[in-house]
Amino acid sequence: MDPTGGTAADGVQDAYQDGNVLAGPLSEIFAVDLTAAMSRCAHCDSTGAVATLRVYGRPPALVARCPSCGEVVLRIVRSPTNTWLDLRGTVTLNIPMDTR
Amino acid sequence: MARAAVSGRLAARLRWQAAALVERREESPTARTLVFDLPGWAGHLPGQHVDVRLTAEDGYSTQRSYSIASAPDADRVELTVQRVPDGEVSPYLADDLRVGDAVEIRGPVGGWFVWRPEQAEPVLLVAGGSGVVPLMSMIRVRDMIGSRVPFRLLYSVRDPADRLYGPELDRGAPGLDTTWVYTRGTPDGWTRPAGRLTPDDLVRWGWPADFEPTCYVCGPTGFVEAAAGMLVALGHHPDRIRTERFGPSGG
Q1: Any CB–CB contact under 8 A between A27 and chain B?
Q2: pLDDT score at A100
Q3: Are B102 and B161 found together in one domain?
Q4: Dihedral sign (CA A5, B239, B42, B250)
Q5: Domain of residue B137, residue span
Q6: Which residue from A53, A86, B162, B218 has the least number of CB within 10 angstroms?
Q7: B28 burial class (0-12, 13-18, 19+ CB within 10 angstroms)?
Q8: Nearest chain A Cα distance for residue B173, angstroms
């Protein structure tokens, strides 16, 4: 079940997406795009764009893990009335601001 | 016309908006471009995506992210959807949604995997399968605004039937070099044997690392990890490699 024309490694099921898919859910809460922000992992201290996190699940419940150590960096769950955001795996977010 | 591309809304909180299908085009035996009417669309940056939400009569709802294929064009947004066998959403969008039917769309979103027209450096685009979609938006915006930034596209597909946007890419554009990488079957007389993307392909058809191009890599996870790893090994700085990968939930 390779969606892309056979370029994935044979027999390897892609189990995750990347942090780009967080852009929509996070845009419901934040006024700036957070996927371009650099996050620092609370477990291994590595930094990288939120867009490069490994995201498991699908809306309304997503878990984003550090690509370096695999620990949970961010969790987000959307109910009809609330958004629940767990950032315990994130030390900092360094957010580029649109200066235009 | 260029105004919409440059302004690209990144900072607004977004709402779901009803979008009617106005046209469907066949891009390959398994991929369709869907043209939606989105009144008041504020434009987008190439590489951005939208979330598409479908809601059944019983209230069950599901959503997926799809990259935008088109350049900004008034109230029209084009998505290219690859049908995933046994997928929950893509077969419906690709085959069953009728012209006039509406879905809900939220976007544009994403500020990482984007090309901004003010970027002056050369650009390397590396696509695996339907990963070409957001890269095509970059190519189309470059063309629309008359940019002279040199682009090179390496596009890996299984065989010629799986090519998306083949006629448009074959017509090409000044300053855009396109190289096809066939992994299973090639056209007659093709000199490169069928096989996966190699570092040699990136050396021959990409940019030298010391040109400091920005590299955009999009495709399935295995493809993206392999290609990004090769680029790093060839000396491209990781900060200049932007990736977008999709897994089974693309279905």
Answers
A1: yes
A2: 65
A3: no
A4: positive
A5: 123-250
A6: A86
A7: buried
A8: 25
Nearest to A58 by CA among B57, B134, B248: B248
Q: Do B246 and A3 touch (CB under 8 A)?
A: yes
CA torsion, points A36, B68, A21, A95, in degrees to nearest 10?
10
Single residue among B83, B109, B135 that ends a domain in this structure: B109
pLDDT digits (tens, 9 = 90+) for B195-231: 999 999 999 999 999 999 999 999 999 999 999 999 9
Sign of CA dihedral B171, B174, B180, B186: positive
Q: B131 and B65, same structural domain?
A: no
Q: Which residue of A has its CA nearest to B111?
A: A36
Q: Write the CATH number for B151.
A: 3.40.50.80
B107 vs A contacts (CB less than 8 Å): 24
Q: How many CB pairs under 8 A join A and B?
A: 147
Instruction: Write down the ipTM of this complex.
Output: 0.87
pTM: 0.91
A39 touches chain B (CB under 8 A): no
Residue B80 lies in a domain: yes
* CA dist., res. B220 & res. A9, Å (int): 9
Q: Any chain B CB within 8 A of the CB of A68?
A: no
* Selection from A90, A89, A21, A14 nearest residue A55 by Cα: A21
> Does A16 touch chain B if contact means CB atoms closer than 8 Å?
yes
Interchain pair B85, A1: CB under 8 A: yes
